[in-house]
TrEMBL record:
<dbReference type="InterPro" id="IPR016166">
    <property type="entry name" value="FAD-bd_PCMH"/>
</dbReference>
<dbReference type="InterPro" id="IPR016167">
    <property type="entry name" value="FAD-bd_PCMH_sub1"/>
</dbReference>
<dbReference type="InterPro" id="IPR036318">
    <property type="entry name" value="FAD-bd_PCMH-like_sf"/>
</dbReference>
<dbReference type="Pfam" id="PF01565">
    <property type="entry name" value="FAD_binding_4"/>
</dbReference>
<dbReference type="InterPro" id="IPR016169">
    <property type="entry name" value="FAD-bd_PCMH_sub2"/>
</dbReference>
<protein>
    <recommendedName>
        <fullName>FAD-binding PCMH-type domain-containing protein</fullName>
    </recommendedName>
</protein>
<dbReference type="GO" id="GO:0071949">
    <property type="term" value="F:FAD binding"/>
</dbReference>
<feature type="domain" description="FAD-binding PCMH-type">
    <location>
        <begin position="7"/>
        <end position="181"/>
    </location>
</feature>
<dbReference type="InterPro" id="IPR006094">
    <property type="entry name" value="Oxid_FAD_bind_N"/>
</dbReference>
Length: 345
C-alpha cells in the first residue's frame, strides 16, 4: 500500500476477503458504519486514487481472490479480480501455446482494475481491448446480491467493461474469451535519433500506424539522449513492435507499408507469444516464465498522464516537443505513443 503524500487520507481498515460471503459482509458492515468502500485489485493506479477517499473508508483488497481456470477446448477462462496479468498470461501459456489474451504489457497489473478500465496491449489492433473480450462477470452489488451477466442485465454489464468496475459494485471474477495466436510471432525495436531522421520517420508513422495490417502493432517510445555531437542532447525514438507471424511475412509488409523505418531481418527476433510478453515487459532474453508470477511492484516516484491524439502532430509540433525533452525537469521523461486502428475503428 502506498500513499502520495503524508496528508493523503488513509483507510480505517484494510480487509482481504477469502470469498463472496465475506465481501457481502464487508459491504453490509460498511453501510452500517457509514464508510465508503474502495476496491483494490493490483494497486497499479499511478497515484493511488482508486483506493483513497475524502470520507471514512475501508479498502477491500482482492489479493486472496486470484484463482484462474482455463478452458482450452472452448477458448475461455474465468479469472478472479485479484489475479495479475502476469498470473493470467502464465496460466494460459501453461495450458496452450496457441491461445492468448489482449491485455496490457505490465505483468503486475491487477485484472480487476485493468478489465474494468478498458485495458489495451500489443494485440489490441487484432482483437480489441481486454474489456471487448469479457463475456461474463460475477458482481456483488451494494445490496449484497451476487449477479452474473444475465442477472445484472446488459446495461450494467456494458458499464463495468470500461466504466470502472468498482463504480457499480465489487466484481469478483471475469469470464474472458481467449484468442488464437500463432506459434511464432516476431518482435523488433528499432532506435532512431534526430540525427537519423527521427522527426520525419515519426511524422510518417502517425499517418500509417493505425492502418497497418491488424497483425502488426508498432508503438513509439520517446526519450532524451546524448547526441553524437559532444555536449549536445538529442531525442531517441524507439519503434517497438509485435507482429503475429514470422519475419518472412513481416519484412515485405513493412517494405510496403512503412519503408521509411528501414527494417531489416537482423532487427527481428522470432519467438512465442508468451515470450513476447516477457519482451515487452522488459525482461532479458531467456528469462523464466516464473517471473510473471511475481506480484511485487517496483516503487518509483513519477508523474504519469494519458491522453488521445486525434490528428497527426505536424513536424513543427514534434520539434516543439523535442525542446521539452531538453529541459532539466524532463531528464528522465518518457513519452509513449500507442496506435489504435484495426478492431478499434
Amino acid at each position: 500500500m502506498r500513499f502520495s503524500t503524508p496528508s493523503t487520507p488513509k483507510p480505517l481498515v484494510i480487509v482481504t476477503p477469502l470469498g463472496v460471503s465475506q465481501i457481502q459482509e464487508i459491504l453490509s458492515c460498511a453501510q452500517i458504519h457509514g464508510m465508503q468502500v474502495r476496491v483494490r485489485s493490483g494497486g497499479h493506479d499511478y497515484e493511488g486514487l482508486s483506493y483513497v477517499s475524502p470520507v471514512p473508508f475501508v479498502i477491500l483488497d482482492m489479493i486472496n481472490l486470484r484463482n484462474i481456470s482455463v478452458d482450452v477446448e472452448n477458448s475461455f477462462a474465468w479469472v478472479q479480480s485479484g489475479a495479475t496479468l502476469g498470473e493470467l498470461y502464465y496460466e494460459i501459456a501453461e495450458q496452450s501455446k496457441t491461445l492468448g489474451f489482449p491485455a496490457g504489457v505490465c505483468p503486475t497489473i491487477g485484472v480487476g482494475g485493468h478489465f474494468s478500465g478498458g485495458g489495451y496491449g500489443t494485440i489490441l489492433r487484432k482483437y480489441g481491448l481486454a474489456a471487448d473480450n469479457v463475456i461474463d462477470a460475477h458482481l456483488i452489488d451494494v445490496k449484497g446480491r451476487f449477479l452474473d451477466r444475465k442477472a445484472m442485465g446488459e446495461d450494467l454489464f456494458w458499464a463495468i467493461r470500461g466504466g470502472g468496475g468498482a463504480s457499480f459494485g465489487v466484481i469478483v471474477a471475469w469470464k474472458i474469451k481467449l484468442v488464437p495466436v500463432p506459434s511464432t510471432v516476431t518482435v523488433f525495436t528499432v532506435n532512431k535519433n534526430l540525427e537519423q531522421n527521427a522527426t520525419k520517420i515519426l511524422h510518417r508513422w502517425q499517418y500509417v500506424a493505425d492502418k497497418f495490417d491488424k497483425d502488426l502493432f508498432i508503438r513509439v517510445l520517446l526519450t532524451g539522449a546524448n547526441s553524437s555531437q559532444e555536449g549536445k542532447k538529442t531525442v531517441e525514438a524507439a519503434f517497438n513492435s509485435l507482429y503475429l507471424g514470422g519475419k518472412d511475412k513481416l519484412l515485405p509488409l513493412m517494405q510496403k507499408s512503412f519503408p521509411e523505418l528501414g527494417l531489416v531481418s537482423e532487427d527481428c527476433t522470432e519467438m512465442s507469444w508468451i515470450q513476447s510478453i516477457l519482451y515487452f515487459a522488459g525482461f532479458p532474453s531467456g528469462q523464466s516464465l516464473d517471473v510473471l508470477l511475481n506480484r511485487t511492484l517496483t516503487v518509483i516516484s513519477y508523474k504519469a498522464k494519458s491522453d488521445y491524439v486525434e490528428n497527426p502532430i505536424p513536424e513543427a509540433g514534434l520539434e516543439g516537443i523535442w525542446q521539452r525533452f531538453y529541459e532539466k525537469e524532463a531528464e528522465s521523461a518518457v513519452l509513449i505513443l500507442s496506435p489504435y486502428g484495426g478492431e478499434n475503428e
